[in-house]
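Hello, quick one for you while I still have it in my head. My current little project is about how a certain protein chain folds up. You're getting the sequence in one-letter code plus the fold written as tokens. Would you mind checking whether the tokens look sensible for this chain? Here's the protein in full, and shout if anything looks odd to you:
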Amino acid sequence: MTNRIHKFGISGADMEKTVFLGLGSNLGDREHNLSRAVEMIGEEIGKVIDCSSVYETEPWGFRSDDRFLNMVVRLRTCLNPSGLLGRILMIEAQLGRLRGGKGYKSRTMDIDILLYGSQVIKKQELEIPHPRIADRRFVLEPLCELAPGMLHPVLKVPFSELLDKCTDECVVSVKHPFSIF
């Protein structure tokens, strides 16, 4: 295959990685925030392959009356992990995400890199796979919808098994399917 240059970098089947992103929103028009984020991911990061259903969830790690809408997106990208993180931060900011302070809080958009191929990265600014996948039912439910048999790159356990063993008691309910087409 011939490599070609496009707006995501150098393209070629051998350079593309399958990535799973977790998306969440609990402020503003949550449905619109998710739809716009998926659209921007397709424009700025890579080809969106599929999306999980949209799940409504309780906030995790903090108190808020505003429930989250969460989903997982599978895509192909030529961006390296640092470049991917940079584009994600840009998309979050364009969708009104305000960063600062300590701890979790309500937000218009939160995008986490859950998986980047089978790579394992542990840096101060970036940890892949996401270090709390196994602890978060709101991540595991939509991730298992897309890739239940896939193995966690570090734990070497299928995500469906991680979901079965998850002790997170937050209520996670399917709101509706998400359509990218």
Remarks:
- Residues 114 and 131 are 8 Å apart (CA to CA).
- The radius of gyration is 16 Å.
- The chain has a mean pLDDT of 86.
